[in-house]
Amino acid sequence: MLNVQAKLYDELVDKSLKEYQANQKVVAADLDAEISNSKVVLFMEGTPDAPKSEPSLNAVKMLTEAQVVPMTSVNVLTHPAILGYTVAKTQKRRTPHLYVNGSFYADYDGLLAQHGTGQLAKNLGTEATKSSGVFGGELPIATY
């Protein structure tokens, strides 16, 4: 069963890369602008409110816990060229992909490693969004 899913995903990525290559100029111009205009951009399957894969869900949880805000998310499933763009740019076939300050920062494995050591919160997080008063120091509900 897992082999079938992996093969299906590989086919999706291959089709997405072809779609991106066919429309590279337009897609790259639009998404390059998005990446350069936003401090943190997460290319993920689904949205932060409704992730469509376990890695995307976990990435949102890690970024929320680290209080990485503000963050822009891009749903790679809305059009094949979007997935093709981020795969071509990062050379990583599996999303999510995180971009920080206009450059590729980490894929899921990189986020997981940094989260485990606390580096994600140190490098990208902010204390300014933590609650004060009675609930001081606690994480608020995510605000995207």
Query: What form results from the Cα inertia axes?
Result: globular
CATH C-level category = Alpha Beta
- How far apart the termini lie comes to 35 Å
Structural class: alpha+beta
Helix content: 40-55%
Number of domains: 1
CATH superfamily: Glutaredoxin
- Report the uncertain regions: none
Strand order of the largest sheet: 4-1-5-6
Count of strand segments: 6
Just name the CATH architecture: 3-Layer(aba) Sandwich
CATH topology: Glutaredoxin
Q: Any idea what the radius of gyration is?
A: 16 Å
Features:
144 residues, alpha+beta, Glutaredoxin, two-stranded antiparallel ribbon
Give me the secondary-structure topology.
Blueprint: H1 2-22, H2 24-37, E1 40-44, E2 46-47, E3 50-51, H3 54-65, E4 72-75, H4 80-90, E5 97-100, E6 103-107, H5 108-117, H6 119-124
Parallel strand pairs: 1-4
Antiparallel strand pairs: 1-5, 2-3, 5-6
Helix pairs in contact: 1-2, 1-4, 3-5
